[in-house]
Amino acid sequence: FESGGLWGGFGPATSTAPGFLSYYEEGTWSPASAGVGSLITGTATFSDAKYTRIGRKVFATINIISGLSISSNNSNVWYGFTTTGLPGVTVSSQFGGSAMLWFVGLSRQRCIAIDVVSGADTYAAFGFESYSAGGSLSGQSITLYRVGFSYDIV
Question: Which pTM value belongs to this model?
Answer without folding.
Answer: 0.77
